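Could you help me review a protein record that somebody else here produced? What it holds is a sequence and that sequence's fold in C-alpha coordinate form. I have pasted the whole thing underneath without changing anything:
=====
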Amino acid sequence: MNKRILASFLSCIIILGAGAVGAVWVYVTVAKEGQQGPLLAAVDSVQTSQESKGGEAKANDVKSTSAQPDNDRGNDAKDQSSEKDLTVKEIIKQSQKKVFTVKTMDGLGSGFLFNRYGDLLTNAHVVEGHSDVTVTGLDKQEYAGTVIGIGASMDVAVIRVPGLAGKDPLPLETRNKAEVGDPVLALGSPHGLENTVTTGIISGLDREFELDPYVYSNLYQTSAPIAPGNSGGPLINSDTGKVVGINSAIMTQGTIGFSIPISQVAAMMEEWTGHQIDGTSNSTKTASAPNTASSAPASISKEEAEGLVIQYYLSLSVEDYVTAYSLLGSQWQKGTTYKQFREGYLNTQQVTVDYISALTGTGGKTEVSGLITAEERKNGVVSYRQYEVSYKIGYENGVLKMLKGSGKPLE
Protein backbone atom coordinates (compact mmCIF):
# COMPACT_ATOMS: atom_id res chain seq x y z
CA MET A 1 0.00 0.00 0.00
CA ASN A 2 2.76 2.31 0.89
CA LYS A 3 4.55 1.38 -2.32
CA ARG A 4 1.47 2.29 -4.37
CA ILE A 5 1.14 5.64 -2.64
CA LEU A 6 4.82 6.38 -3.23
CA ALA A 7 4.54 5.43 -6.92
CA SER A 8 1.53 7.65 -7.38
CA PHE A 9 3.29 10.53 -5.69
CA LEU A 10 6.34 10.17 -7.93
CA SER A 11 4.12 10.02 -11.03
CA CYS A 12 2.45 13.26 -10.07
CA ILE A 13 5.80 14.94 -9.55
CA ILE A 14 7.00 13.76 -12.98
CA ILE A 15 3.81 14.95 -14.68
CA LEU A 16 3.92 18.30 -12.96
CA GLY A 17 7.56 18.70 -13.81
CA ALA A 18 6.98 17.90 -17.47
CA GLY A 19 4.10 20.34 -17.57
CA ALA A 20 6.23 23.07 -16.04
CA VAL A 21 9.03 22.46 -18.55
CA GLY A 22 6.52 22.53 -21.41
CA ALA A 23 4.98 25.74 -20.15
CA VAL A 24 8.39 27.39 -19.93
CA TRP A 25 9.24 26.25 -23.49
CA VAL A 26 5.96 27.60 -24.88
CA TYR A 27 6.43 30.93 -23.09
CA VAL A 28 10.00 31.38 -24.31
CA THR A 29 9.08 30.46 -27.89
CA VAL A 30 6.07 32.78 -28.06
CA ALA A 31 7.97 35.64 -26.45
CA LYS A 32 10.87 35.22 -28.87
CA GLU A 33 8.63 35.27 -31.95
CA GLY A 34 6.47 38.07 -30.57
CA GLN A 35 9.43 40.45 -30.44
CA GLN A 36 9.71 40.40 -34.28
CA GLY A 37 6.39 42.32 -34.79
CA PRO A 38 3.44 42.00 -37.23
CA LEU A 39 5.40 42.90 -40.39
CA LEU A 40 7.38 39.66 -40.32
CA ALA A 41 4.27 37.78 -39.30
CA ALA A 42 2.56 39.04 -42.43
CA VAL A 43 5.49 38.10 -44.62
CA ASP A 44 5.72 34.69 -42.99
CA SER A 45 2.01 34.17 -43.57
CA VAL A 46 2.41 34.98 -47.27
CA GLN A 47 5.31 32.58 -47.55
CA THR A 48 3.34 29.92 -45.67
CA SER A 49 0.45 30.25 -48.10
CA GLN A 50 2.80 29.39 -50.93
CA GLU A 51 4.30 26.42 -49.08
CA SER A 52 1.31 24.89 -47.28
CA LYS A 53 -2.25 24.32 -48.41
CA GLY A 54 -3.23 23.85 -44.81
CA GLY A 55 -2.35 27.44 -44.02
CA GLU A 56 -3.93 28.84 -47.19
CA ALA A 57 -7.01 30.39 -45.59
CA LYS A 58 -5.03 32.04 -42.80
CA ALA A 59 -2.31 33.19 -45.17
CA ASN A 60 -4.85 34.73 -47.52
CA ASP A 61 -6.43 36.60 -44.64
CA VAL A 62 -3.09 38.03 -43.54
CA LYS A 63 -2.03 38.79 -47.09
CA SER A 64 -5.26 40.63 -47.77
CA THR A 65 -4.90 42.68 -44.61
CA SER A 66 -1.26 43.58 -45.14
CA ALA A 67 -1.60 44.33 -48.84
CA GLN A 68 -4.70 46.53 -48.56
CA PRO A 69 -2.86 49.78 -47.77
CA ASP A 70 -0.70 49.36 -50.89
CA ASN A 71 -3.80 48.84 -53.04
CA ASP A 72 -5.42 51.92 -51.51
CA ARG A 73 -2.37 54.03 -52.27
CA GLY A 74 -2.35 52.75 -55.82
CA ASN A 75 -6.02 53.58 -56.27
CA ASP A 76 -5.50 57.04 -54.80
CA ALA A 77 -2.64 57.71 -57.18
CA LYS A 78 -4.72 56.48 -60.08
CA ASP A 79 -7.65 58.65 -59.06
CA GLN A 80 -5.42 61.69 -58.66
CA SER A 81 -3.84 61.05 -62.05
CA SER A 82 -7.25 60.70 -63.69
CA GLU A 83 -8.43 63.88 -61.99
CA LYS A 84 -5.38 65.76 -63.24
CA ASP A 85 -5.84 64.43 -66.78
CA LEU A 86 -9.47 65.47 -66.66
CA THR A 87 -8.49 68.94 -65.52
CA VAL A 88 -6.10 69.35 -68.43
CA LYS A 89 -8.75 68.06 -70.82
CA GLU A 90 -11.24 70.52 -69.43
CA ILE A 91 -8.75 73.35 -69.81
CA ILE A 92 -8.21 72.39 -73.43
CA LYS A 93 -11.93 72.04 -74.08
CA GLN A 94 -12.74 75.44 -72.60
CA SER A 95 -9.74 77.18 -74.15
CA GLN A 96 -10.44 75.98 -77.69
CA LYS A 97 -13.73 77.88 -77.64
CA LYS A 98 -11.81 81.12 -77.19
CA VAL A 99 -9.05 80.58 -79.75
CA PHE A 100 -9.63 81.71 -83.34
CA THR A 101 -8.06 81.38 -86.76
CA VAL A 102 -7.21 84.85 -88.10
CA LYS A 103 -7.39 85.15 -91.90
CA THR A 104 -6.17 87.96 -94.15
CA MET A 105 -5.68 88.20 -97.89
CA ASP A 106 -2.04 87.22 -97.38
CA GLY A 107 -2.36 84.23 -95.06
CA LEU A 108 -3.54 83.11 -91.68
CA GLY A 109 -2.52 82.92 -88.05
CA SER A 110 -4.16 82.58 -84.67
CA GLY A 111 -5.60 84.82 -81.99
CA PHE A 112 -7.47 84.51 -78.70
CA LEU A 113 -10.20 86.37 -76.85
CA PHE A 114 -8.81 88.23 -73.84
CA ASN A 115 -11.64 90.51 -72.70
CA ARG A 116 -15.42 90.80 -72.86
CA TYR A 117 -15.30 93.51 -75.49
CA GLY A 118 -14.66 91.13 -78.35
CA ASP A 119 -10.92 91.87 -78.50
CA LEU A 120 -8.47 89.25 -79.76
CA LEU A 121 -4.73 89.31 -79.12
CA THR A 122 -2.48 88.15 -81.95
CA ASN A 123 0.90 88.87 -83.53
CA ALA A 124 1.50 92.04 -85.52
CA HIS A 125 3.03 90.03 -88.36
CA VAL A 126 -0.25 88.10 -88.71
CA VAL A 127 -2.27 91.22 -89.57
CA GLU A 128 0.46 93.55 -90.85
CA GLY A 129 -0.80 95.65 -93.75
CA HIS A 130 -4.46 94.86 -93.03
CA SER A 131 -7.13 96.73 -91.11
CA ASP A 132 -9.95 94.26 -91.73
CA VAL A 133 -9.64 90.54 -91.06
CA THR A 134 -11.86 87.48 -90.74
CA VAL A 135 -11.74 85.22 -87.69
CA THR A 136 -13.12 81.70 -87.43
CA GLY A 137 -13.98 79.91 -84.20
CA LEU A 138 -14.36 76.34 -83.04
CA ASP A 139 -17.93 76.29 -84.36
CA LYS A 140 -16.65 77.26 -87.86
CA GLN A 141 -18.60 80.52 -87.68
CA GLU A 142 -16.87 83.50 -89.29
CA TYR A 143 -16.70 86.97 -87.76
CA ALA A 144 -15.51 90.29 -89.15
CA GLY A 145 -12.75 91.99 -87.21
CA THR A 146 -10.87 95.30 -87.27
CA VAL A 147 -7.30 95.88 -86.17
CA ILE A 148 -7.46 98.55 -83.44
CA GLY A 149 -3.84 98.42 -82.33
CA ILE A 150 -0.57 97.10 -83.73
CA GLY A 151 3.01 97.18 -82.51
CA ALA A 152 5.75 98.92 -84.44
CA SER A 153 8.67 96.97 -82.97
CA MET A 154 6.78 94.63 -80.65
CA ASP A 155 5.11 91.78 -82.49
CA VAL A 156 1.62 92.14 -81.01
CA ALA A 157 -1.71 93.41 -82.29
CA VAL A 158 -5.31 93.64 -81.12
CA ILE A 159 -8.34 92.82 -83.29
CA ARG A 160 -11.78 94.01 -82.27
CA VAL A 161 -14.56 91.60 -83.24
CA PRO A 162 -17.99 93.05 -82.38
CA GLY A 163 -19.63 89.66 -82.90
CA LEU A 164 -17.66 88.25 -79.94
CA ALA A 165 -18.52 91.04 -77.50
CA GLY A 166 -19.90 89.76 -74.22
CA LYS A 167 -18.33 86.30 -74.49
CA ASP A 168 -16.09 84.99 -71.72
CA PRO A 169 -12.37 85.43 -72.49
CA LEU A 170 -9.34 83.36 -71.59
CA PRO A 171 -7.85 84.19 -68.17
CA LEU A 172 -4.48 85.93 -68.33
CA GLU A 173 -1.41 85.55 -66.12
CA THR A 174 -0.19 89.15 -65.85
CA ARG A 175 1.49 88.98 -62.45
CA ASN A 176 3.62 85.88 -62.07
CA LYS A 177 6.44 85.03 -64.42
CA ALA A 178 6.59 81.50 -65.81
CA GLU A 179 9.39 79.25 -64.59
CA VAL A 180 11.47 76.61 -66.32
CA GLY A 181 9.64 73.31 -66.06
CA ASP A 182 6.11 74.76 -66.01
CA PRO A 183 3.80 72.54 -68.11
CA VAL A 184 2.23 74.39 -71.04
CA LEU A 185 -0.24 73.98 -73.89
CA ALA A 186 0.19 75.72 -77.25
CA LEU A 187 -3.10 76.32 -79.09
CA GLY A 188 -3.62 77.57 -82.61
CA SER A 189 -3.90 76.67 -86.27
CA PRO A 190 -0.50 75.37 -87.44
CA HIS A 191 -0.48 74.98 -91.24
CA GLY A 192 -4.18 75.84 -91.17
CA LEU A 193 -5.07 72.87 -88.97
CA GLU A 194 -7.54 74.60 -86.68
CA ASN A 195 -7.92 73.84 -82.97
CA THR A 196 -4.57 72.07 -82.71
CA VAL A 197 -3.11 71.57 -79.22
CA THR A 198 0.49 70.63 -78.44
CA THR A 199 2.06 70.09 -75.04
CA GLY A 200 5.45 70.78 -73.52
CA ILE A 201 7.19 72.77 -70.82
CA ILE A 202 8.84 76.15 -70.41
CA SER A 203 12.35 75.15 -71.40
CA GLY A 204 14.08 78.52 -71.22
CA LEU A 205 13.66 82.15 -70.17
CA ASP A 206 14.71 85.62 -71.30
CA ARG A 207 15.52 84.71 -74.92
CA GLU A 208 16.25 87.65 -77.22
CA PHE A 209 16.61 88.16 -80.98
CA GLU A 210 15.44 90.39 -83.85
CA LEU A 211 13.35 89.57 -86.89
CA ASP A 212 13.09 92.87 -88.74
CA PRO A 213 11.13 94.99 -88.02
CA TYR A 214 10.31 93.31 -84.71
CA VAL A 215 12.46 93.10 -81.61
CA TYR A 216 11.85 90.15 -79.30
CA SER A 217 13.05 90.24 -75.70
CA ASN A 218 12.46 88.36 -72.45
CA LEU A 219 10.78 85.55 -74.37
CA TYR A 220 9.63 82.22 -73.01
CA GLN A 221 11.23 79.26 -74.74
CA THR A 222 8.97 76.22 -74.93
CA SER A 223 9.25 72.61 -76.00
CA ALA A 224 5.59 72.57 -77.10
CA PRO A 225 5.78 72.17 -80.91
CA ILE A 226 4.87 75.41 -82.71
CA ALA A 227 4.51 75.67 -86.48
CA PRO A 228 3.54 78.39 -88.98
CA GLY A 229 -0.08 79.28 -88.28
CA ASN A 230 0.42 79.01 -84.52
CA SER A 231 1.51 82.64 -84.47
CA GLY A 232 -0.74 84.71 -82.23
CA GLY A 233 -2.16 81.69 -80.40
CA PRO A 234 -2.03 81.40 -76.61
CA LEU A 235 0.56 79.56 -74.54
CA ILE A 236 -1.39 78.27 -71.53
CA ASN A 237 -0.12 76.94 -68.22
CA SER A 238 -1.81 73.54 -68.03
CA ASP A 239 -1.87 73.66 -64.22
CA THR A 240 -3.66 77.01 -63.89
CA GLY A 241 -5.43 77.35 -67.24
CA LYS A 242 -4.11 80.92 -67.59
CA VAL A 243 -2.45 82.36 -70.69
CA VAL A 244 1.21 83.07 -69.98
CA GLY A 245 2.37 84.01 -73.47
CA ILE A 246 1.66 84.63 -77.16
CA ASN A 247 3.18 82.06 -79.51
CA SER A 248 5.30 84.08 -81.86
CA ALA A 249 8.36 82.40 -83.36
CA ILE A 250 9.98 79.02 -83.96
CA MET A 251 13.44 77.69 -84.64
CA THR A 252 14.01 76.59 -88.21
CA GLN A 253 15.17 73.25 -86.86
CA GLY A 254 13.81 71.24 -83.95
CA THR A 255 10.70 71.81 -81.90
CA ILE A 256 11.71 74.93 -80.00
CA GLY A 257 9.19 77.75 -79.91
CA PHE A 258 9.17 81.24 -78.42
CA SER A 259 6.34 83.16 -76.79
CA ILE A 260 5.98 86.78 -75.72
CA PRO A 261 5.02 86.99 -72.02
CA ILE A 262 1.53 88.38 -71.41
CA SER A 263 2.88 90.57 -68.61
CA GLN A 264 5.10 92.30 -71.16
CA VAL A 265 2.21 93.52 -73.32
CA ALA A 266 -0.57 94.05 -70.76
CA ALA A 267 -0.14 97.84 -70.60
CA MET A 268 -0.21 98.13 -74.39
CA MET A 269 -3.37 96.02 -74.56
CA GLU A 270 -5.07 98.30 -72.04
CA GLU A 271 -4.02 101.36 -74.02
CA TRP A 272 -5.34 100.08 -77.32
CA THR A 273 -8.64 98.77 -75.98
CA GLY A 274 -9.38 101.48 -73.44
CA HIS A 275 -10.15 98.83 -70.84
CA GLN A 276 -8.09 97.69 -67.90
CA ILE A 277 -7.03 94.07 -67.67
CA ASP A 278 -7.66 92.31 -64.37
CA GLY A 279 -5.02 89.62 -64.15
CA THR A 280 -6.79 87.82 -61.32
CA SER A 281 -10.04 87.06 -63.12
CA ASN A 282 -11.41 85.95 -66.46
CA SER A 283 -12.65 89.36 -67.50
CA THR A 284 -11.87 93.05 -67.53
CA LYS A 285 -13.02 95.17 -64.62
CA THR A 286 -15.90 96.53 -66.67
CA ALA A 287 -18.21 93.56 -66.97
CA SER A 288 -20.79 94.95 -69.39
CA ALA A 289 -20.31 94.38 -73.09
CA PRO A 290 -19.91 97.20 -75.61
CA ASN A 291 -22.18 98.05 -78.52
CA THR A 292 -25.06 98.97 -76.23
CA ALA A 293 -26.89 102.25 -75.93
CA SER A 294 -25.51 102.77 -72.43
CA SER A 295 -21.88 102.30 -73.54
CA ALA A 296 -21.68 105.89 -74.89
CA PRO A 297 -22.52 108.88 -72.69
CA ALA A 298 -25.13 111.30 -73.94
CA SER A 299 -22.51 114.07 -74.18
CA ILE A 300 -18.78 114.56 -74.50
CA SER A 301 -17.12 117.20 -72.36
CA LYS A 302 -14.77 119.74 -73.91
CA GLU A 303 -11.99 118.49 -71.66
CA GLU A 304 -12.38 114.91 -72.90
CA ALA A 305 -12.43 115.87 -76.56
CA GLU A 306 -9.53 118.30 -76.33
CA GLY A 307 -7.56 115.88 -74.15
CA LEU A 308 -7.86 113.15 -76.80
CA VAL A 309 -6.42 115.38 -79.52
CA ILE A 310 -3.61 116.58 -77.24
CA GLN A 311 -2.77 112.94 -76.39
CA TYR A 312 -2.66 112.18 -80.10
CA TYR A 313 -0.04 114.87 -80.77
CA LEU A 314 1.96 114.09 -77.66
CA SER A 315 2.22 110.49 -78.88
CA LEU A 316 3.45 111.65 -82.28
CA SER A 317 6.03 113.93 -80.63
CA VAL A 318 7.64 110.98 -78.81
CA GLU A 319 7.31 108.77 -81.91
CA ASP A 320 4.77 106.50 -80.22
CA TYR A 321 2.92 105.83 -83.47
CA VAL A 322 1.18 102.77 -82.05
CA THR A 323 -0.68 104.81 -79.43
CA ALA A 324 -1.48 107.59 -81.89
CA TYR A 325 -2.87 105.08 -84.40
CA SER A 326 -4.95 103.38 -81.71
CA LEU A 327 -6.79 106.68 -81.09
CA LEU A 328 -8.20 106.66 -84.62
CA GLY A 329 -11.67 105.30 -85.32
CA SER A 330 -12.18 102.06 -87.23
CA GLN A 331 -13.27 103.78 -90.45
CA TRP A 332 -10.19 105.98 -90.42
CA GLN A 333 -7.99 102.95 -89.81
CA LYS A 334 -9.82 101.10 -92.56
CA GLY A 335 -8.70 103.72 -95.09
CA THR A 336 -5.17 104.02 -93.69
CA THR A 337 -3.05 101.07 -92.64
CA TYR A 338 -0.71 101.40 -89.70
CA LYS A 339 2.28 101.23 -92.04
CA GLN A 340 0.96 104.13 -94.13
CA PHE A 341 0.12 106.11 -91.01
CA ARG A 342 3.59 105.63 -89.54
CA GLU A 343 5.39 106.51 -92.78
CA GLY A 344 3.40 109.75 -92.98
CA TYR A 345 4.93 110.97 -89.72
CA LEU A 346 8.52 109.70 -89.95
CA ASN A 347 9.77 113.18 -90.89
CA THR A 348 7.84 114.88 -88.07
CA GLN A 349 10.06 115.47 -85.05
CA GLN A 350 7.96 117.52 -82.65
CA VAL A 351 4.37 118.77 -82.57
CA THR A 352 3.22 121.69 -80.44
CA VAL A 353 -0.46 122.41 -79.89
CA ASP A 354 -0.77 126.20 -80.13
CA TYR A 355 -4.52 126.43 -79.82
CA ILE A 356 -7.39 123.99 -79.39
CA SER A 357 -11.12 124.32 -78.90
CA ALA A 358 -13.96 121.83 -78.70
CA LEU A 359 -17.71 122.14 -78.82
CA THR A 360 -19.80 120.42 -76.19
CA GLY A 361 -20.96 117.37 -78.10
CA THR A 362 -24.29 115.60 -77.92
CA GLY A 363 -25.25 112.17 -79.16
CA GLY A 364 -21.74 110.90 -78.50
CA LYS A 365 -19.98 113.17 -81.06
CA THR A 366 -18.32 116.58 -81.09
CA GLU A 367 -16.01 118.80 -83.16
CA VAL A 368 -12.50 119.89 -82.22
CA SER A 369 -10.49 122.53 -84.08
CA GLY A 370 -7.05 123.84 -83.41
CA LEU A 371 -3.70 125.18 -84.56
CA ILE A 372 -0.48 123.19 -84.32
CA THR A 373 3.18 123.75 -85.15
CA ALA A 374 5.12 120.79 -86.54
CA GLU A 375 8.89 120.44 -86.58
CA GLU A 376 9.69 118.65 -89.83
CA ARG A 377 12.96 117.26 -91.11
CA LYS A 378 13.62 116.63 -94.79
CA ASN A 379 16.98 115.88 -96.39
CA GLY A 380 18.68 116.91 -93.19
CA VAL A 381 16.96 120.33 -93.14
CA VAL A 382 14.68 121.22 -90.23
CA SER A 383 11.68 123.48 -90.81
CA TYR A 384 8.60 124.55 -88.86
CA ARG A 385 5.12 124.69 -90.30
CA GLN A 386 1.75 125.54 -88.84
CA TYR A 387 -1.44 123.63 -89.60
CA GLU A 388 -5.10 124.29 -89.02
CA VAL A 389 -6.61 121.01 -87.89
CA SER A 390 -10.14 119.78 -87.40
CA TYR A 391 -11.40 116.51 -85.91
CA LYS A 392 -14.68 114.79 -85.27
CA ILE A 393 -14.61 113.02 -81.90
CA GLY A 394 -17.02 110.25 -80.93
CA TYR A 395 -17.54 107.00 -79.12
CA GLU A 396 -16.87 103.70 -80.78
CA ASN A 397 -17.62 100.54 -78.80
CA GLY A 398 -17.66 102.63 -75.66
CA VAL A 399 -14.21 104.17 -76.33
CA LEU A 400 -13.60 107.80 -77.30
CA LYS A 401 -11.97 107.95 -80.74
CA MET A 402 -10.94 110.42 -83.45
CA LEU A 403 -13.44 109.48 -86.15
CA LYS A 404 -12.36 111.92 -88.86
CA GLY A 405 -9.61 114.47 -89.28
CA SER A 406 -8.16 117.04 -91.66
CA GLY A 407 -5.26 119.44 -91.69
CA LYS A 408 -4.47 122.52 -93.77
CA PRO A 409 -0.97 124.05 -93.83
CA LEU A 410 -0.70 127.80 -93.37
CA GLU A 411 1.49 129.61 -95.86
Summary: The chain has nine helices and 18 strands.
